[in-house]
Amino acid sequence: MNNYLDKAISLAQMVEGQTGLNPPVGAVIVKNGRIIGMGAHLKQGERHAEIQAIDMAGPEQVVGATIYVSLEPCSHFGKTPPCAKRIIDTGISHVVYAARDITLPATGHQMMERAGVKVTYRPHPVAEQLYASFFKSKQLERPIVTVKVSASLDGKQATDHFESQWITNPSVKEDVFKLRHEHDAIITGSGTLKYDNPSLTVRLEEGRHPVRVILTRSGQIDWKSNMFHDGYGPIIIYTENHSLQSTCSNVEVVCLDNCNVDSVLKDLYLKGFGRVLVEAGPKVTSQFLSSKLITHFILYLAPKLIGGQGLNQFYQTESVFKLSDTHQFEIVETSLIDTNVKILMKRK
């Protein structure tokens, strides 16, 4: 039984990062020991995983079958009808799922059991880890936030003369492209725009280019920057400057009274962004790392010592904190990318 549940979770992991405000979900339908249908929720607003699996198997074949789902089937009407009701209507006799949906007031588990469907909740640690950030995001109404930093061993994103290309190796760049592909938006600051003139695109075959987001309280923007003319989709600028106006048709300017981490993330969530990546200089990076709203921190370390006075140290604060008050992270995974180290962390 766990083998089929593992397959459903694997399908969910494959679409992680492309479902907007919705969770990534995978489903596998089994009858007489054979897989007859599979599905994954591919995009917000499209068919859910359970519906895709049912449609693949066919309405006649699913009668009496078992469906394995990475997340408890939904019971509410959103952009699509409840998956729990569709499962009931098709005659599937048994539902096995790996994680409870704690964000819903009414559960699909109860709806299906009341209709006579056998329902089994089989907790799976991989599924619970997969959905932990989604549950927090939905409860707070803020996106899942990952901060990415590429730095030297002494924590520099650039030299004191703002030379930053390239601290890490080409293989890290390829990994970052994959990381961007998994997010709906990339947040950067006007300083990065000024000194690096980045594109923040995904240079992968069939890669999905996230919306690029620029933070600039002052509203000082160089409209000649490559980003505004490369044709890779919409750009959002958050500012406190009420007089700032875009000179490009693909740029939306959002003026906020307080252009801080919380207000920006709140607005991005309302716009439908479920996952955002922060790729910025020390100022913006430090603001996000100091916020309890970030969920993941990815640090790429190159085996170099840059030195200098640390003008571009990736984490800087005006205050000096006691060790007992420092921001804590848990190391989830480490890997070696050629000669560079990748450290994946989650906020404790």
UniProtKB/TrEMBL annotation:
It comes from the Bacteria. Pathway: Cofactor biosynthesis; riboflavin biosynthesis; 5-amino-6-(D-ribitylamino)uracil from GTP: step 2/4; Cofactor biosynthesis; riboflavin biosynthesis; 5-amino-6-(D-ribitylamino)uracil from GTP: step 3/4. Keywords: Hydrolase, Metal-binding, Multifunctional enzyme, NADP, Oxidoreductase, Riboflavin biosynthesis, Zinc. Its EC number is 3.5.4.26, 1.1.1.193. Binds 1 zinc ion. It catalyses: 2,5-diamino-6-hydroxy-4-(5-phosphoribosylamino)-pyrimidine + H2O + H(+) = 5-amino-6-(5-phospho-D-ribosylamino)uracil + NH4(+); 5-amino-6-(5-phospho-D-ribitylamino)uracil + NADP(+) = 5-amino-6-(5-phospho-D-ribosylamino)uracil + NADPH + H(+). Pfam families: dCMP_cyt_deam_1, RibD_C. The keyword Protease does not apply. Residues 1-111 form the CMP/dCMP-type deaminase domain. InterPro entries: APOBEC/CMP_deaminase_Zn-bd, CMP_dCMP_dom, Cytidine_deaminase-like, DHFR-like_dom_sf, Eubact_RibD, RibDG_C, Riboflavin_Biosynth_HTPR. Signal peptide: none annotated. Its cofactor is Zn(2+). The keyword Metal-binding applies. Converts 2,5-diamino-6-(ribosylamino)-4(3h)-pyrimidinone 5'-phosphate into 5-amino-6-(ribosylamino)-2,4(1h,3h)-pyrimidinedione 5'-phosphate. PANTHER family: 2,5-DIAMINO-6-RIBOSYLAMINO-4(3H)-PYRIMIDINONE 5'-PHOSPHATE REDUCTASE, DIHYDROFOLATE REDUCTASE FAMILY PROTEIN (AFU_ORTHOLOGUE AFUA_8G06820). In the N-terminal section; belongs to the cytidine and deoxycytidylate deaminase family. In the C-terminal section; belongs to the HTP reductase family. This is Riboflavin biosynthesis protein RibD.
